[in-house]
């Protein structure tokens, strides 16, 4: 495949690159082989490119680092209780329901895959349920959708509903091993045009739910299993005040020390939330693990504290964004980006307020504003999230997989904005000089910022993962 048009990416925190009239070539295995300015490329002499429509650009897809797949069943409901009560009242019941009804599970997970694609999510780290069969269904539906997915069979052997718990730590460890080995032995995607196969998109991830539901024996066994197999790890850490207090009372320690003791803080680990870690603790954890920042669900379950995002970034933490369905009500990473910026601006406002002392703010921000801007959030959603997941996408470069979403800003003929977007000045100028404005119109940072603020699914026209089109005219 050969594409010609405009490409946008965030190669580093706060940096936005716009490549106007560039060419990208993709081989049969879905990897980028050329990325260069179109006018000077020899490829055009031998190949006819797919010309991206004027008014559109390609951007790496979003990465969702933290999503509870079975909780999609009740997305948008049940955010009225503290975390530990909410788990018993809503989350465990929903998960148990899907474990008892494979047909419902397949319906829910198939729709989840469809929704993720429409929202521009190309890679996702998923919490599943206890039952292997239900998690296999989840993996099958993500594979069918064509999304990069890290699927976790939840492990928990204490402090849950009597009907929704594993019999012992050894049973839970064996079940995690069996599920992971099944996924490892299963899928690669055959190319539709050649005999070559593409890399596996669905992988297992070891998933101790969180410290309150996992005995020390279970945590230790899962840490050893991850080291043996090289599998990724996901969990929750220091999410809410009631959870933190429970762990201190029942285990006499903090989440971070318990995870560290059992070798569950590694370069392969993603810990969600971390709102009740002090900035210095967040720095310690981030030397070895990534953090999934879930700002919308933090508003509901960590209302008195906000994640120390700027401090974590300054400490070189690998940070990406998560939706935390259904603790967060929106499946759209664009909502997570906007909320992350808003929460960070509130933190900066509180720090600047005269006489206000915040217990979770210290000097580790190196004097920088605690607020992030839209470009920084876009980095977290794309390359930042990809790095946290350990995948090579998130940026357009030779050797990387071709993962991309096509965004339309305006109609190339009428110059009318797409979806919720309006570009009045451009419409007026097009009316004055049709000949001039039927030529290439450069996409600007101001246009992209407008899309970031008010764009939605209507602006997303296509998406590719590993070179395969999963949204568009020929998925």
Automatic annotation (TrEMBL):
Q: Which residues form a coiled coil?
A: none
Q: For this chain's UniProt record, which GO biological process terms are given?
A: guanine metabolic process
Q: What GO MF annotations does this protein's record show?
A: guanine deaminase activity; zinc ion binding
- Is this entry keyworded Coiled coil? no
Keywords in alphabetical order, please: Hydrolase, Metal-binding, Zinc
- Entry keyword annotation includes Chaperone: no
A GO cellular component annotation here is: cytosol
What this protein needs as a cofactor is: Zn(2+)
Q: Which domain of life is it from?
A: Eukaryota
Q: Which SUPFAM superfamilies match?
A: Composite domain of metallo-dependent hydrolases, Metallo-dependent hydrolases
InterPro entries found in the cross-reference section:
Amidohydro-rel, Metal-dep_hydrolase_composite, Metal_Hydrolase, Metallo-dep_hydrolases
User: Amidohydrolase-related domain: which residues?
Assistant: 57-405
Q: What is this protein called?
A: Amidohydrolase-related domain-containing protein
């Amino acid at each position: 495949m050969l594409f010609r048009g405009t490409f946008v990416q965030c190669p580093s925190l706060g940096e936005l690159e716009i490549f106007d009239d560039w060419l990208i070539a993709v081989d049969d295995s879905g990897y980028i082989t050329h990325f260069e300015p179109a006018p000077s490329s020899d490829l055009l002499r031998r190949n006819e490119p797919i010309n991206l429509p004027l008014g559109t650009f390609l951007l790496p897809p979003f990465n969702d680092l933290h999503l509870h797949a079975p909780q999609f069943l009740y997305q948008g409901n049940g955010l009225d209780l503290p975390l530990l009560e909410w788990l018993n009242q809503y989350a465990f019941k929903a998960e148990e329901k899907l474990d008892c009804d494979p047909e419902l599970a397949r319906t829910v997970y198939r729709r989840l895959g469809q929704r993720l694609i429409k929202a521009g999510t190309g890679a996702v780290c998923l919490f599943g349920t206890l039952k292997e069969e239900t998690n296999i269904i989840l993996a099958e539906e993500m594979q069918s959708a064509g999304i990069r997915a890290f699927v976790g069979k939840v492990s928990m052997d204490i402090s849950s509903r009597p009907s929704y718990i594993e019999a012992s730590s050894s049973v839970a460890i064996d079940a995690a091993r069996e599920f992971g080995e099944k996924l490892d032995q299963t899928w690669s995607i055959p190319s539709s045009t050649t005999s070559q196969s593409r890399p596996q998109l669905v992988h297992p991830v070891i998933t101790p739910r969180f410290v309150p539901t996992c005995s020390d024996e279970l945590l230790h066994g899962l840490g050893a299993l991850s080291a043996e197999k090289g599998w990724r790890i996901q969990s929750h850490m220091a999410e809410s005040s009631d959870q933190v207090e429970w762990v201190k009372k029942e285990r006499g320690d903090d989440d971070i020390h318990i995870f560290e003791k059992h070798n569950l803080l590694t370069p392969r680990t993603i810990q969600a939330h971390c709102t009740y870690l002090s900035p210095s603790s967040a720095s310690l954890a981030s030397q070895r693990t990534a953090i999934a920042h879930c700002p919308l669900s933090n508003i509901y379950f960590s209302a008195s504290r906000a994640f120390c995002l700027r401090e974590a970034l300054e400490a070189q933490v690998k940070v990406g964004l998560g939706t935390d369905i259904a603790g967060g009500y929106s499946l759209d990473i664009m909502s997570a980006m906007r909320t992350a910026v808003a929460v960070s601006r509130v933190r900066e406002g509180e720090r600047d307020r005269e006489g206000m002392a915040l217990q979770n703010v210290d000097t580790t921000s190196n004097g920088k504003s605690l607020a992030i801007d839209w470009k920084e959030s876009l980095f977290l959603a794309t390359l930042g999230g990809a790095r946290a997941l350990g995948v090579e996408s998130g940026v357009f470069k030779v050797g990387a997989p071709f993962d991309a979403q096509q965004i339309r800003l305006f109609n190339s003929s009428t110059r009318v904005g797409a979806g919720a977007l309006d570009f009045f000045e451009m419409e007026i100028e097009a009316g004055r000089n049709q000949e001039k404005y039927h030529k290439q119109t450069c996409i600007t940072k101001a246009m992209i910022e407008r899309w970031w603020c008010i764009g939605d699914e209507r602006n997303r026209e296509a998406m590719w993962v590993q070179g395969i089109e999963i949204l568009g005219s020929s998925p």
